[in-house]
Input
Amino acid sequence: MSSRQRAGGHVKIAVYAFDGASMFHLSVPHLVFDEVARSGAAPWQTSFFSEDAGFSEDAGSVTTSEGYTLGGIEGLDRARDADLIVVPSWIKDGVAPSPALAKLLQERHARAVPIVGLCLGANALADAGLLAGRSAVTHWKSTEELARRHPEISVEPSALYLDHGDVMTSAGTASGIDACLHIVRTRLGSAVANRVARHLVVAPHREGGQAQYIERPVPADSSGGAVAAACAFALEHLGEGLSVARLAQAAHLSERSFVRAFRDETGATPAAWVRSRRLDEARTLLETSQLSVDQIAAACGFGSPVTLRQNFAAAFGSTPSSYRRRFGDGATDGV
Output
C-alpha cells in the first residue's frame, strides 16, 4: 500500500470514530501503529476523527457499543491532514456514510491518500465509490449483502485482506490486526512488523489470501502437537524438499490425516504454508544479509532464482532486488 511520506518518516494516521463502534475495532489501528512509534521504528501518530460538526472546534466524544465514552475525538480537519485514513468498522450494513464523510474520503483518495476499510468499514469505502471495479473483502457474514448492494465490486468471501495500494479492505474483527501489520510490513519491512507483532503477541504475518475462518473446530491437543512438530521441522529444513509425505512423517501421521489436521490447525494447505514461510525467510535474508538472490533462493528452498522471483512477485508485487533496495540494511526510503 502506497503512502505519503513527511520529513523524518513521520506519518499521520486518522481513524474514524462513531457512536456504537466497538472498543476492539477502534483500538486495533492504535495498538499496531502506535507500537511502531513506541518501538522507535518510525514517528507514526494515530488519532481519532469524526464528521460531527461539534468536533470541529473542540475535541468531542463517542459512546462505544460497550457503553464507554471515548474522548479526544477530533474533527474532519484531522483527517484532511492525514497520510493514511482508516475506517475501522461500520455502523451496520446498508447505512451510507454521511455526505461529509463520503466527500472527505473521495477528496483525500483523489489526493493520493490511502484509504483503509477494516471489517465492515469496507461498506463506507464502497458507498463512497472507492471500490468500483476492484476486489474487496469484509466480514464473512456481510459479503453477500455487500455484493448485492454493490455489483460493481468483486467481493472475495474468504480473503483476510486485499491491498490495492490506494485502497485496502480487511475481513472481520481480528483480521484487522493482520491488515495493519501488513501496512507496517510494506512500509518498514518484516523486521519491524515482526517486532510489533511480538509485542502484541500475535502472528507476525498471515497472507491476505488465507481463509477468514475455519469451519471445523480446532483439533485436539494430540493433533495440534503433531502439526506443531511438522511446522517446527519445516522451519528447520526450509532449504530442503518438504513434501507432504516428509512433513507427515515428522508429524507421525498418515498423509491423509496430516493434511486434514494441518488445514484444521492453520487454515492453509501444507504447500501454501511452507511457501509462505519460505517467502518470510527470503524477506528476512534480503533485509539483513549480503547473500545473493541465487543464494537466498537455494537457502529458502525455491530451487532457482527464477522460482523465487516468480513467487516473490506474486506475493508482494516486487522483485527481490527491489525489495532489498527498499528494506535492506542501510535502506533510506522510509515509509
About this structure: Residues 221-267 form one domain.
